């Protein structure tokens, strides 16, 4: 059965078809119209039902509740907050707490993750097995399980403040959390801070300069003694000139609790520990895959040029591995931020816990509260993925691809 | 870098490196130890550190779990150091006492055989599916993914059916017609746009009512008869079989006909065996479910339900039709951008507001809907990766043969794509299995929730109860997740057989 050759369609009609229905033409147009009709119908049903249900429960919709008085206390606040503040303030407190736990968790997770990855790639058999075992165990247990384990089993079974484990009579570990001496600023603080700032800036700038000089002239420079000297020496000099920068307020046991000092609540400690050790296992795998993705010949080429193993890693392998590592690494950071919402299980006052938890149950404004919460997490995700796309674009441009 | 020409680059070695002795090949345990543990000072140091690390983690764990453990007892006093006379490790009587709670939750004891039967059936259907050499994969997969969930629902929840295909489609059609008519009536009264759209919708609703009238009349007749379920089943079977026969064509129709008839005979057997036409098994409300049962129900349902969602979204994202593509992208990005726990709260607190007031749905079902959408968005990205990996030539060859879009996708592209991404899908299933523990935050007592509930029991409050409970639960989670990940590795290995040299 032969198929007759079809006459070419008129250009105008073909363009219209494409514009309206994509590559599928009129069929695509019909599909779009039907699809939109179904969406409209579902949307209408949702809005209509929600309006009826809210009217029945006598809940006023809208964001007016955000300015009402919250009237509940929050156990840990970084910004000033009291019970008479509004729900907007509660939202901000939660957001800051979420960002704090995410930032601390990301730093610790990255450090542990890189260490475990390098351990897993180590030529030492025992170390690589231990790192592998860590990754397998931690990755195969639910995060909520780990959070509860740290909170209930490890920190919860610590002794009461009276029998607390103490180090040098100034650090105390008990079921009230970790209590450490609190630094109190004194006269020499400003000079000290300036010295530290200068030292840190120099410690970052010097290796960069040395690296540029190495690439430009081929002359290596030994920077680390200078950097360490700067980091230790400058603050010491500042102390010698301006006097003691701060003294420590040592916590003392008074009654059933500690007085003075700063306290890290057990919720924060458990959440940070669980989040960072859990994410570290994933980061370790990401880093390992990145380093393995660099061809073995690169390492050999470095060796044949006379570079040491450390130099080869630092100058040749890591920069290439970083291209592969960074996008999934950013994903893991994002996961950690989203997972910090599990704080609600142990009562750490993060965004989700104080806003979608307490505020929702007090006001009953389910639609608004959940929409705001989802929106904030979505915004964080979208910003991060936009930054990642920008990074990928820059990499592609610099690689000339 | 123009300066490079003026100086001698330091990266070029100036002197010869002295010859090194040839490496000595040593075999056996001693050789391995010398080569990989003690070949340099740094390595010796690392080995010592590693050994110390192991000594301080593994030894106490083994001592806690096995050596110092208490194995029998009736209550907390048997697990106290004063009674036993030495430092106490794990308190296993606690796990023994709470074991049935960890597995079944508060499921009524006389009905627990239903849970056992469901577990056994699931394992029986799953095992041959996992063994590559076992025959009849299509039949097996169909039974596991379609028949088993339905059967498991009636086994676990209980209850019977009032009607079958005809009744359901009549309900659906009249519901749709009602909704459209109601919307039309409401819109017609308000607003300038509404007064235009309203009458149109009203007309559409009336048309739908007229179209669905024969079906509704048939439903009335069936419900009035003495055996509504069987009559309905018979009618549905005849209608479906005829439809399948006509659609596949008379020449190839016989095979499809046999499959359809077989499926309906199977349904009839199940209905007869569970007496679904006479009310079925007693209903066990989902509030009574708990423990491993809920964990498995949520994860298996999530896995099965998220697959079609994921495939549809992945195809939608690659569609050339603009609005469908935009919708898919927005949907996927939305669900991937929010934490699962907000999805659970969305399902628990917001979803009921979106449904008609007289329509209540079970808490477990609400959470399942949320999980299916969430996992579907993640699966969609995995499947899209597989779709992208299929060379264009495959689809082009299919359209050169004259296959339609659906046939090209369903018979050529999708099977290859899914095969490619099995490891990725298993990864997202593992993530889903672990994430099911979050249901304990929205007041469903899964394994983790039961564990927390068990800690509250004063009969068993000893210093080591917490660690024992976590050790036991952790072991269960680990066995499931580790098993899945090892299985996916073996599948990957098998599928990549042609790439190994």
Automatic annotation (TrEMBL), chain A:
For this protein, the parts annotated as crossing the membrane are 29-47, 59-79, 91-119, 140-160, 191-210, 222-248, 268-291, 369-393
Q: Where in the cell is it found?
A: Cell inner membrane; Cell membrane
Task: Kindly indicate whether the keyword Transmembrane helix belongs to this entry.
Answer: yes
For this protein, the record's Gene3D superfamilies field holds: MetI-like (1.10.3720.10)
Pfam families xref list = BPD_transp_1
Q: How does it sit in the membrane?
A: Multi-pass membrane protein
Q: Which residues form the ABC transmembrane type-1 domain?
A: 95-388
Query: Among the entry's GO cellular component annotations, what is one?
Result: ATP-binding cassette (ABC) transporter complex
- Residue spans making up a coiled coil are none
Any single GO molecular-function term of the entry would be: transmembrane transporter activity
Cite a single GO BP annotation. Answer: amino acid transport
Key word Zinc present in the record?
no
Keywords, A to Z?
Amino-acid transport, Cell membrane, Membrane, Transmembrane, Transmembrane helix, Transport
Family membership: Belongs to the binding-protein-dependent transport system permease family. HisMQ subfamily.
- Name under which the protein is recorded: Polar amino acid ABC transporter, inner membrane subunit
Automatic annotation (TrEMBL), chain B:
Q: Name one Pfam family in it.
A: BPD_transp_1
* Membrane-spanning ranges: 44-66, 113-131, 138-157, 193-213, 233-250, 257-276, 288-315, 327-351, 363-380, 425-445, 465-484
Stored InterPro entries: AA_ABC_transptr_permease_3TM, ArtM/GltK/GlnP/TcyL/YhdX-like, MetI-like, MetI-like_sf
Which keywords label this protein? Answer: Cell membrane, Membrane, Transmembrane, Transmembrane helix, Transport
Q: Where in the cell is it found?
A: Cell inner membrane; Cell membrane
How does the protein's chain sit in the membrane according to the entry? Answer: Multi-pass membrane protein
Q: Which GO terms describe its cellular component?
A: ATP-binding cassette (ABC) transporter complex
Q: What's the chief localization of this chain?
A: membrane
Give the family from UniProt.
Belongs to the binding-protein-dependent transport system permease family. HisMQ subfamily.
Its name, as the record gives it, is Polar amino acid ABC transporter, inner membrane subunit
């Amino acid at each position: 059965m032969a198929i007759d050759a079809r006459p070419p369609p008129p250009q105008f009609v073909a363009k219209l078809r494409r514009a309206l229905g994509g590559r599928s033409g009129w069929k695509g147009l019909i599909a779009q119209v039907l699809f939109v009709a179904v969406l409209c119908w579902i949307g209408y049903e949702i809005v209509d039902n929600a309006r009826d249900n809210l009217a029945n429960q006598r809940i006023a919709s809208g964001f007016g509740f955000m300015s009402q008085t919250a009237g509940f206390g929050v156990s840990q606040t970084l910004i000033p907050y009291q019970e008479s503040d509004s729900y907007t303030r509660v939202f901000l407190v939660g957001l800051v707490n979420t960002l704090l736990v995410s930032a601390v968790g990301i730093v610790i997770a990255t450090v542990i993750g890189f260490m475990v990855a390098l351990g897993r790639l180590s030529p030492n058999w025992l170390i690589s097995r231990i790192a592998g075992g860590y990754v397998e165990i931690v990755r195969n247990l639910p995060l909520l399980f780990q959070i509860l384990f740290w909170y209930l089993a490890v920190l919860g079974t610590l002794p009461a403040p009276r029998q607390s484990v103490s180090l040098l009579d100034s650090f105390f570990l008990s079921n009230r959390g970790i209590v450490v001496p609190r630094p109190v600023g004194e006269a020499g603080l400003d000079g000290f801070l300036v010295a530290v700032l200068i030292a840190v800036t120099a410690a970052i700038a010097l290796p960069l300069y040395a690296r540029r000089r190495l690439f430009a002239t081929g002359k290596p420079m030994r920077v680390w003694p200078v950097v360490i000297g700067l980091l230790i020496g400058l603050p010491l000099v500042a102390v010698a000139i301006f006097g003691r920068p701060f003294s420590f307020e040592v916590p003392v046991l008074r009654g059933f609790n500690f007085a003075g000092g700063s306290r890290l609540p057990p919720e924060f400690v458990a959440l940070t520990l669980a989040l960072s050790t859990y994410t570290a296992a994933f980061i370790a795998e990401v880093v390992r895959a990145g380093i393995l993705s660099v061809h073995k010949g690169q390492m050999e080429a470095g060796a044949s040029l006379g570079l040491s193993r450390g130099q080869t890693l630092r100058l040749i392998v890591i920069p290439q591995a970083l291209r592969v590592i960074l996008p999934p690494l950013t994903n893991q950071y994002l996961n950690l931020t989203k997972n910090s919402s599990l704080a609600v299980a142990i009562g750490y006052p993060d965004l989700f816990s104080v806003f979608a938890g307490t505020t929702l149950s007090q006001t009953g404004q389910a639609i608004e509260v959940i929409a705001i919460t989802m929106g904030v997490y979505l915004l964080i995700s979208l910003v991060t993925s936009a930054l990642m796309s920008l990074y990928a674009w820059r990499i592609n441009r610099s690689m000339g691809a | 870098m123009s300066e490079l020409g003026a100086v001698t680059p330091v990266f070029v070695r100036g002197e010869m490196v002295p010859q090194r002795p040839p490496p000595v090949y040593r075999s056996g345990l001693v050789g391995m130890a010398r080569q990989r543990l003690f070949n340099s000072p740094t390595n010796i140091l690392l080995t010592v550190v590693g050994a110390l690390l192991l000594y301080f983690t593994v030894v106490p764990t083994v001592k806690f779990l096995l050596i110092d453990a208490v194995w029998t007892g009736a209550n907390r006093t048997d697990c106290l150091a004063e009674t036993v006379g030495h430092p106490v490790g794990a308190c296993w009587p606690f796990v023994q006492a709470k074991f049935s709670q960890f597995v079944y939750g508060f499921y009524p004891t006389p009905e627990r055989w239903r849970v056992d039967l469901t577990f056994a059936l699931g394992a029986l259907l799953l095992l041959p599916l996992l063994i590559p050499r076992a025959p009849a994969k299509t039949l097996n997969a169909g039974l596991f993914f379609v028949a088993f969930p339905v059967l498991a629902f009636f086994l676990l929840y209980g209850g019977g059916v009032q009607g079958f295909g005809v009744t359901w489609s009549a309900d659906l059609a009249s519901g749709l017609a009602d909704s459209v008519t109601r919307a039309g009536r409401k819109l017609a009264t308000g607003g300038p746009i509404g007064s235009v759209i309203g009458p149109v919708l009203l007309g559409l609703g009336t048309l739908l009512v007229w179209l669905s009238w024969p079906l509704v009349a048939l439903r009335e007749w069936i419900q009035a008869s003495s055996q509504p379920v069987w009559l309905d089943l018979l009618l549905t079977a005849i209608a479906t079989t005829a439809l399948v026969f006509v659609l596949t064509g008379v020449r190839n129709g016989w095979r499809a006909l046999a499959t359809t008839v077989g499926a309906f005979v199977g349904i009839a057997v199940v209905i007869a065996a569970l007496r679904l036409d006479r009310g079925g098994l007693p209903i066990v409300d989902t509030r009574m479910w708990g423990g491993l049962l809920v964990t498995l129900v949520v994860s298996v349902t999530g896995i099965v339900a998220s697959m079609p969602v994921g495939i549809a979204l992945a195809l939608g994202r690659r569609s050339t039709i603009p609005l469908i593509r935009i919708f898919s992208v927005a949907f996927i990005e939305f669900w991937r951008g929010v934490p699962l726990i907000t999805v659970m709260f969305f399902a628990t607190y917001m979803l009921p507001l979106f449904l008609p007031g007289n329509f209540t749905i079970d808490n477990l079902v609400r959470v399942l809907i949320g999980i299916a959408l969430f996992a579907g968005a993640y699966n969609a990205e995995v499947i899209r990766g597989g779709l992208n990996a299929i060379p264009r030539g495959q689809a082009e060859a299919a359209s050169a043969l004259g296959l339609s879009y659906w046939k090209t996708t369903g018979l050529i592209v999708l099977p290859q794509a899914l095969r490619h991404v099995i490891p990725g899908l298993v990864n997202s299933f593992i993530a889903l299995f672990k994430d099911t523990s979050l249901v304990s935050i929205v007041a469903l007592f899964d394994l983790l929730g039961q564990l927390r509930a068990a800690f509250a029991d004063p009969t068993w409050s000893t210093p080591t109860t917490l660690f024992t409970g976590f050790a036991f639960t952790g072991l269960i989670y680990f066995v499931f997740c580790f098993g899945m990940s090892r299985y996916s590795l073996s599948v990957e290995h098998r599928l990549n057989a042609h790439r190994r040299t």
